[in-house]
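One chain shown below:
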Amino acid sequence: VTTLTFVEPLGKQTQSILLPHAMFAGIYHNYPHMWNRSIAPDSSKLKGFWEFMDQNPAMLGHPVKTRVNYKALAVPLSFHGDEVPIVGLGMGWAKLMATFSWASLLGAGSTIQTMHYRWSAFTALCKTGDCDGTFHMFFRILAWSFEALWVGKWPMEDWNGKVYLDLI
């Protein structure tokens, strides 16, 4: 739970964002069957994916290659965001909602079984701005969570740098 800024008169509003590092940990520790199906089937699939990707020009100098044993441990992810009409479908006055989700590139199953919802908001209500804009803050929080995944340790501070007192 965090606070994001929206257009006036809404201003600051409490928002729940499903953080990737928290979902990874929750699925891994509590739902091993789901982990094996929708995140990382087994280390041979991970290794096969990364060996195939070694041939891709996008992997030249890629940071993941600096990680020890990345071919057996690094889960390749996709992130998806889209605006979809929610109200007034097909009308000129339709209201759009921006929705964000992520998935493992190795997951098996239907879209609903493999995509992991993050957050959504009506686009017209989102504040614009480089530092205090709604989407700017959302992506800053998301980057912090993905950084925790990259490091492989539960963060000691929240996305604003505030120390979690319950971890001390």
Remarks:
- The chain is about 35% helix and 20% strand.
- The mean pLDDT is 90.
